Amino acid sequence: QVQLVESGGRLVQAGGSLRLSCAVSGLTFSSKAMGWFRQAPGKEREFVAAISWSGDSTYYADSVKGRFTISRDTAKKTLYLQMNSLKPGDTASYYCAASRSVRAYFSRSDYSDARQYDLWGQGTQVTVSS
Question: Exposed, middle or buried, 18 (CB in 10 Å: 0-12/13-18/19+)?
Answer without folding.
Answer: buried
